[in-house]
Amino acid sequence: MKNDFSVDVTIKAGVGTLTFSTPDHNALPSFALSEIESGLLRLSQDATVKVIVLKSGGDRTFCAGASFKELIAIEDEGQGKGFFMGFAKVILAMRSCPQLIICRVQGKAVGGGVGLAAAADYCLATKHAAVKLSEISIGIGPFVIGPAVERKMGVSAFSQLSIDATEFYSADWAHARGLYAEVFEDAQSMDAAVEALSKRLSTYNPEALRALKTMFWQGTGGWPQLLEERAAQSGKLVLSRFTKDVLAGYK
Fold it and tell me: In CATH, which of 3.40.50.1370, 3.30.420.240, 1.20.1090.10, 3.90.226.10 is domain 2-202?
């Protein structure tokens, strides 16, 4: 499967773009999460990069969340924690990156995909970018991504998504609750807006942009420990008989 995954990092005129793609609706296994984290860290350390755009390949799915193939294969708590730490490390890399991150969401975002969108500093989407947190329905829970989603959308919206775990909520619903800054009719108009915004930000004072990012993320200093604890919690739950029985249906 590694050969079917790609992460492409480009830098042009002060804008760094990271594009990831996997064959299973952009669902993310451990090695893919590791590559995304590495790409973000590389961009964050490049002084020529003033703003970062995070996007995925394909037309109608931004990210289907965790790879069910890998979830099914988890055999012990250490392995489970390690898998969920992949999402934690990506979110922490987005948090600690000094540049503002614009997320381009062209289609559905599920589970960890919602977490990635929420961890971005600014998110633009199409009308096809419905969201769902399905974790509790398979016996786990959106624990690792929870702080990012709650920070962006508030406790009420996060609770609604977490509890009503089988339903997709529309892009307009997510827009009204702060996940998306704007929703577009199609990818072409969204891409034009992403390009215009990233170009404009790349011309601003980088010191001011870094200070703005720091201000946005105040109060999250405890996240490294918190997300590690949440990853351990998820790693334990994925081994429960309930979850094993549910995941068996996906084999």
Answer: 3.90.226.10
